[in-house]
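Let us practice reading a record.
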Amino acid sequence: MDRQKKLESGEVWSVIASLAIPTVIITLVMVVYNMADVFFIGKTGNPDMINAISVCMPIFPIIQAFGTLIGAGGCTAISVALGKRDLKKSKKISSFCFYFCVVVGIAMALILNIFTGPIISMLGAADSYREYAVLYLRFLALGCPVMMFSNGFVNIMRADGSMKEPMIANLTGTITNIILDPIFIIGFGMGVVGAAVATVIGNVIASIILARLLKGKKEYLSTSIKDLDLSYETAVRPMLLGLPIASGTVLMSVSYMVLNNLLLSVDVNAQGAFGISRSIMLLSTTTQLGICMGVQPAVSFNYGRGNYERVKEFVKKTMIACMIFGLAIAVICIGGRDVLIKAFIDDAAIAGYGRQILVGCFITAPIYAIYQSSVTFLQATDWAGWSTAITLLRQGVVLIPAMLVLNAIWGFSGLIYCFAVVDVVAAVIGFITLHRRLNDQFDTSFGVLTNPS
């Protein structure tokens, strides 16, 4: 209960730091998993393997999105329940989240293995590296259940303000992956298969640790089927609360599929360059997401308590922190883009495209912070409908048409800057909506997903 007291009355900047720093480390684990595969595959000197990994990238976030759907939503719902001292409801929510990960994870593993060929074609794979892409995706799919569990429950365990336990679990899984990557990829000569197997094993280790740590929170978290409840409040509502982040991730993956197909008409090396650039870009976007998600339990907890002025203070100061970080990382990555790309692969063709792509990726990093803060805290204060609408607007409704139109007008240059265009549009809409939310006495009439207007 000391953690809950801190959420309720601790000094705001101190609470933000204590919550955000560990969560940033946790969320960066997703980036490290991704970057480790690309980095060590790059050391093979085989551009086809880099292109195969790059074209399969949209699938990895989709797997994680289902974990985020239940993890982010479950975290918010449990935080609110704890704020209301409803421990029974908290246990029911966590039990549903656990069985959701198991059932949906198995279903996804089967789908990805049965329909590997059509999925690879849809992703925009070229014939020159198609075999590598098929192998990577099939082995990666085997880890769907544990990947969903580790990604989901690392968020759920933050519901009471705990940071150390989930951070240890994810870091251990990441370190395992990093150690195994060079052994499998280079040492055993397994290539893309080694990258996929290392990723799965890392998630298995993280899941084992999380499962053990959950036993220490049995007062309000449960994986028992006896606590499974499929009612709206304990099953449907947590998913609605997690929908903004998860749907955004899925739709962004769809956008990347479209982008892969457009880049294929430019050059297969442009696909590889974008894969590397995207991994680097995730350093910025995932950190900003981590800061916001870290502070989310404090926002949801005080919202549950009815302490609305404290909610406003958390939201405003967190947005400032995200914007400062966005500016700093943009300067570093644009200024050092040649060094960053060469760290992955020493290939002139890929590097030429990559240095251009990185500029387009990072010029709006501070503006992206406004968008991310807006959608996270709208969701955290029970306005999941608006949060989802803005997320879908950015990740696909505007982004996909922007890709098609800008590509038709300016070709490759248009594709480079389409992300910057949608960041500005989404940030403006998000900020206006969040400002309204913070000044409307927290009326929840706009929180229902089916009626966001």
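A brief commentary: The CA atoms of residues 87 and 319 lie 31 Å apart.
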